Each structure stands twice: as C-alpha cells, then as structure tokens.
Amino acid sequence: MQEEEILAEFRASQALLEGHFILSSGLHSAHYLQCARVLMDPMRASRLASALASRMPRDIRSQVELVISPAMGGLIIGHEMGRALGVEAMFVERPTGTFELRRGFAVKPGQKVLLMEDVVTTGLSSREAIAAVNAEGGEVIAAGALVDRSAGEVSLGVPFFPLISLNFPTYASDALPPELAAIPVVKPGSRKEALAA
C-alpha cells in the first residue's frame, strides 16, 4: 500500500477528523485520527495489518512470537497483526494506572514480542507498555503502529515500524495558534466531550 492508498482508507471510514482536539498525549491538534473507525471494517483492518507486516524486515517478522498491544486503542490492530504474522495476540491494560497483563495472559521468559499501537504521538504509552512486557520476562524486539504522529521523532528504544507517518502540528495548551484557540475543543476517543477552551 502506498501512502495515498492508506490515507484513502482513513478518509473512506471517516477516520480523519478536522477541528480542535486534545490528543491522549495532552497536546492540541487541528487533526485527529479515529483509528477505531478505520479498524471497524474487519477486511480493512486486515489489509492495513498485512500492509504493515509486509513492510517490516523479514528477520524481525520471523522472530516475533507474540503481539502485545496497549488497551484500548491497540486491541484490534494488535489482533490483526497477530493474524498477519501467524502468532497469538494479547494486550496490557491499566486497572490501577500502570500497564499489566491480566485475564490469564502471560509471557514466556525470553519470548520475542512485537508491541503494536494504533497511533504513536509522544511514545509515552508505548514505552510504558514495553517496560511492562519486559518486566514480565518478555523481550520486545520491535514496535509497530498504524500511524506515527511524531514526524519521525519518537524513540521507543526498539526498532519502530509505522504504516504511515503524518506530520500534523501539535501544540501545548498555552501555545495554541489563534485560529485553533477560536474553535471549541473536543477530547475524542471512547468518550466524545466538548471542553472549555
């Protein structure tokens, strides 16, 4: 898949939104990618995961024994990456604020893991998930994401393979351009809510 074909998948599913958004990183943006929408079509999710898997170096693909994703955003794409790579997929969640494996999930000592995300902006949640997997005895050998919003700047401590890199500007709340500050802010995701600007 070429970049324009990937963006066409986002547009077709109405997953590329424009307005004033607070990202999970706390930064503000005029663009938001609602990956849940692009992944709600199982065939589209499968195509995107297959495209990403094919872009990963063969030596990395052949080593991956398990895919782990952070809940909630990474669940579907993590599952589809597991399918594309022919390995099991599971997820970490934060019941008390720190990522952990639950629901009977376990990593075998030394098991080679691909960490899979939907969108990476600052990489904080990815690094926290990697630390949780490593603490359980797994070895995260690479990370993947549908979208890298960091403009190629993120460092996860392992090789990182995004399907597409987008360079939408982001802003701290005290450094908003006037045209963005004039638009009501929304914090998208699992709950849509208007916030006071």
UniProtKB/TrEMBL annotation:
It comes from the Bacteria. Coiled coil: none annotated. Its EC number is 2.4.2.10. Residues 51-153 form the Phosphoribosyltransferase domain. It holds the Pfam family Pribosyltran. Keywords: Glycosyltransferase, Magnesium, Pyrimidine biosynthesis, Transferase. The keyword Ribonucleoprotein does not apply. One of its GO terms (molecular function) is glycosyltransferase activity. Its cofactor is Mg(2+). 5-phospho-alpha-D-ribose 1-diphosphate binds at E117, D118, V119, V120, T121, T122, G123, L124, S125. Orotate binds at T121, R149. Pathway: Pyrimidine metabolism; UMP biosynthesis via de novo pathway; UMP from orotate: step 1/2. It catalyses: orotidine 5'-phosphate + diphosphate = orotate + 5-phospho-alpha-D-ribose 1-diphosphate. The keyword Glycoprotein does not apply. Homodimer. Belongs to the purine/pyrimidine phosphoribosyltransferase family. PyrE subfamily. HAMAP family: PyrE. Catalyzes the transfer of a ribosyl phosphate group from 5-phosphoribose 1-diphosphate to orotate, leading to the formation of orotidine monophosphate (OMP). This is Orotate phosphoribosyltransferase.
